[in-house]
Amino acid sequence: MAKIVGALTSSHIPSIGNAISSGKQNDAYWKAFFAGYVPVVEWLDAEKPDVAIVVYNDHGLNFFLNNLPTFAVGAAQEYMTKDEGWGLPLFPPYKGYPEFSWHLIESLVEQEFDIAMCQELVVDHAFINPMRLFWPGQNPPPIRTIPVSVNTVQYPLPRPSRCYALGKAIGAAVASWPGDEKVVIIGTGGMSHQLDGERAGFINRKFDELCLEALVSEPEILARYSILELVREAGAQGAEIIMWLIARGALTGKVSKIHSSYHVPISNTAAGVLALANQ
Ligand code: DHB
Ligand code: FE
Hints:
Layout: E1 3-10, H1 14-21, H2 31-35, H3 38-47, E2 51-56, E3 71-74, E4 78-81, E5 94-95, H4 98-110, E6 116-118, E7 122-123, H5 125-134, E8 144-150, H6 160-175, E9 182-188, H7 205-217, H8 220-223, H9 227-234, H10 242-249, E10 255-266, E11 269-278
Parallel strand pairs: 1-9, 2-8, 2-9, 3-6, 4-7
Antiparallel strand pairs: 1-11, 3-8, 4-5, 10-11
Helix pairs in contact: 1-5, 4-6, 6-10
Bound molecules: 3,4-dihydroxybenzoic acid and fe (iii) ion.
């Protein structure tokens, strides 16, 4: 039986990719941000998970307004990287795990999540940047991946309660996979930010701190918010925190915090990372 060893959640801000590529990790602007990832990288080095389920939101690269699934699961041999306009470099494709993907898809549909299934999928900064932060210098990282894409581009967005339930269903699917792989679930996006409109630049430290605490021991608090309430509290793009809720929902054991870090701002965003162990 496969086991989820932990959940890692992280911001995915495009400029992180450019900072890594130009070696700015020790610049004054970036130093504290990158320092926040060191304990997570060390945990991954020690734990060495075999499979990463990466829950992220596509930003109009693979899916566009004319064809936009609420939830989509990748089932490809590999996932090509592309850039939807941030000037980010391209990398060799991420390694897939089609057999495990199909098990996940079958289990999710059986659990009444009518997800889209993708035998072709290109991944954007929301997938790539957290992977570069968690496995620095390793492109691709030494892990097989299963992308799960969530619509945060076009309304209606899935309710936080639905996202939390999806996470639980992913947890159940992993537990019923006969292989003995170690699985890490990654959720990307957030924390509070709003990129456009009257509140452009909006950041809410109080709400972000609530998220960082609630996700450890009482995720139901966040699952009770509506999307509109999340947008009010976290900003229009801060609603990306639903990816963190999905990742947390997949942890079914005794959950403990390995590490968290919070840094304001990176670009227009409150940048956060949280690592949880699942025993
Ligand atoms: C920024 C943050 C995001 O989550 C994103 O997808 C694009 C840009 C930013 O803060 O610049
Ligand atoms: Fe984003």
